[in-house]
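New to this. Explain these tokens.
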Amino acid sequence: PAEHAAIVDTADLVGVLDQAQVAADQIRQVRCAFTADTVEVSIRGDDRSAVAATGAELTGEDITVVLDAGFLRVAVASCGTPRVRLQFGSTPLRPILVTPDGGGELRHIVM
């Protein structure tokens, strides 16, 4: 199958995740909508919601995934590189693989 992945600036994605989590307080699930050049992160709760976006380089079709915001933030931040690679499964319900862009041994699986 064709590759389905996004390259995102590490600091920008961590910042977007932080913005969304602060606005939505205790909500753990974050919706990430990836298009050719953007990732939009949104969190919705009973009485609060937040939406923030940053640039992304997507290979493959547009995809929207729902992930644990805290786990995603830790995975992205721990890569220790300026950019991270997020690889998607065959459906939006599959976990994603987070790795440093350009290689490296570190691998995180986020659901």
Observations:
- The CA atoms of residues 31 and 66 lie 4 Å apart.
- The helical segments are 10-24, 69-78.
- The chain is about 25% helix and 40% strand.
